[in-house]
């Protein structure tokens, strides 16, 4: 086939993808509107109170909290803070505007164009006040009442998903046996998983292959992030970067007296790894990022919105882009998926084991199912999109102020986060070593090559002894 023919075929494929995507997302927009009404009714019946969603339009009442308190926006220490009488403070900089300000559905745009062509041509956005209402009604509720119990009616109620200790994360710890006469522990290693995953992503892959010699000198920590796996899943949290980092600090660094440590992080966890490295510049000895979601923002673009469009392009193909688009753009549709899969995860796990005759380990499925919609929705927006304007600064700090080794792994076949993300890290931190693994994607960059990765990680750790 000639070059002209291939080019024509590719153009036809793109046109078909555009056309099909328009129709599919038009239908999803309509379904989302119906689900919005359905969940408002369901929440009211099940919990006795309306739960604001990010579909709602701002109203004059949005300047007051649910208990009638006044919301005040002020500048403190260079940060915008929203406060309320008898309420805790919410740093507005922690909240991604992609939660409440994004392009309207196709139906809304069409309606605006019909009623006001000039307004539609200027670009239509949705601005939603419930971002403040949600915080005030829950965590910062002026009357102190728990309007939204955790777990919610639409979440799983099992003990694994709802730990008794709600103040700390679940942490898998592997340490040298006490009194074995071996070398004293010199340093620690912190493993951080990615989006809708769990500590099992590391404990069932890499950790079993860490050599006895490496274990004799290091403690290995693998966390379940806030809202995922066996960690707490508060219904009143907005799952901001600040909350995630502080929970890791409280659950690992402070609780276990961590002084010097390496960080190994996958995907979304790479963002938290950078934030921790900047927070503990003298303590971090090496930084290993696997498939980091770093998208340098072009000049003139709004970073959060640019990352949203890049990660979730509202296209049906490739399939992983379709899944990301549904997760990012449709609050109620993604909640429905969580109800079907996560609320009934024990049933799905049992069915999978029976179907495979108990021959397949289900750690990836366990991690995927054990989260709540509130956790996944806010983490996706507030960490992936919300960090768009922060990663550049963190990488500059790593480049200029930290002495730690930086190693980046990426699969050549990763369709979710292209390999250019890792090359962009290298461009920002020239000393970073980028290792592109042929034939591996977003998951198989670790799963399937865990023995090799464990050996390579030990080499990285030993260089910083």
UniProtKB/TrEMBL annotation:
GO terms for molecular function: hydrolase activity. Residues 1-33 form the signal peptide. Pfam families: Abhydrolase_1. It comes from the Eukaryota. Residues 189-445 form the AB hydrolase-1 domain. Keywords: Hydrolase, Signal. Transmembrane segments: none annotated. InterPro entries: AB_hydrolase_1, AB_hydrolase_fold. This is Alpha/beta-Hydrolases superfamily protein. The lineage of its organism: Eukaryota, Viridiplantae, Streptophyta, Embryophyta, Tracheophyta.
């Amino acid at each position: 086939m000639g070059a002209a023919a291939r080019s024509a075929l590719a153009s036809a494929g793109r046109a078909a993808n555009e056309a099909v995507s328009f129709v599919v997302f038009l239908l999803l927009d309509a379904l989302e509107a119906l689900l919005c009404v359905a969940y408002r009714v369901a929440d009211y019946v099940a919990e006795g109170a309306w739960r604001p969603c990010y579909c709602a339009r701002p109203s004059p009442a949005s300047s007051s909290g649910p208990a009638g308190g006044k919301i005040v926006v002020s500048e403190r220490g260079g940060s915008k803070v929203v406060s309320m009488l008898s309420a805790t403070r919410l740093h507005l900089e922690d909240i991604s505007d992609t939660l409440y300000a994004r392009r309207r559905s196709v139906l809304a745009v069409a309606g605006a164009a019909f009623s006001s062509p000039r307004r539609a041509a200027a670009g239509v956005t949705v601005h939603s006040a419930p971002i403040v209402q949600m915080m005030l009604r829950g965590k910062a509720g002026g009357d102190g009442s728990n309007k939204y119990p955790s777990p919610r009616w639409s979440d799983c109620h099992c003990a694994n998903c709802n730990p008794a200790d709600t103040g700390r994360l679940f942490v898998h710890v592997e340490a040298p046996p006490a009194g074995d006469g071996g070398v004293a522990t010199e340093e620690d290693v912190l493993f951080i998983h990615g989006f809708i995953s769990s500590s099992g992503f590391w404990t069932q892959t890499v950790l079993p292959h860490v050599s006895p010699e490496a274990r004799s000198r290091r403690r290995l920590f693998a966390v379940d992030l806030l809202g995922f796996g066996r960690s707490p899943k508060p219904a009143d949290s907005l799952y901001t970067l600040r909350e995630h980092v502080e929970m890791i600090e409280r659950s690992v660094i402070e609780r276990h007296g961590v002084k010097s440590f390496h960080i190994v992080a996958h995907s979304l966890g790479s963002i938290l790894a950078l934030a921790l490295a900047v927070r503990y510049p003298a303590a971090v000895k090496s930084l290993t990022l696997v498939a980091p979601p770093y998208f340098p923002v072009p000049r003139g673009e709004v970073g959060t919105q640019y990352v949203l469009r890049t990660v979730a392009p509202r296209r049906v193909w490739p399939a992983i882009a379709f899944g990301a688009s549904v997760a990012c753009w449709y609050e109620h549709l993604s909640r429905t998926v969580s109800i079907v899969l996560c609320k009934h995860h024990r049933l799905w796990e049992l069915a999978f084991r029976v179907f495979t005759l108990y021959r397949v380990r289900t750690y990836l499925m366990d991690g995927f199912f054990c989260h709540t919609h509130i956790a996944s929705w806010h983490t996706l927006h507030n960490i992936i999109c919300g960090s768009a304007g922060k990663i550049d600064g963190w990488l500059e700090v790593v480049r200029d102020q930290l002495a730690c080794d930086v190693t980046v792994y990426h699969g050549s076949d990763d369709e979710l986060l292209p390999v250019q993300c890792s090359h962009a890290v290298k461009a920002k931190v020239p000393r970073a070593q980028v290792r592109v693994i042929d034939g591996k994607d977003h998951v198989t960059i670790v799963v399937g090559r865990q023995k090799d990765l464990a050996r390579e990680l030990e080499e990285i750790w030993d260089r910083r002894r």
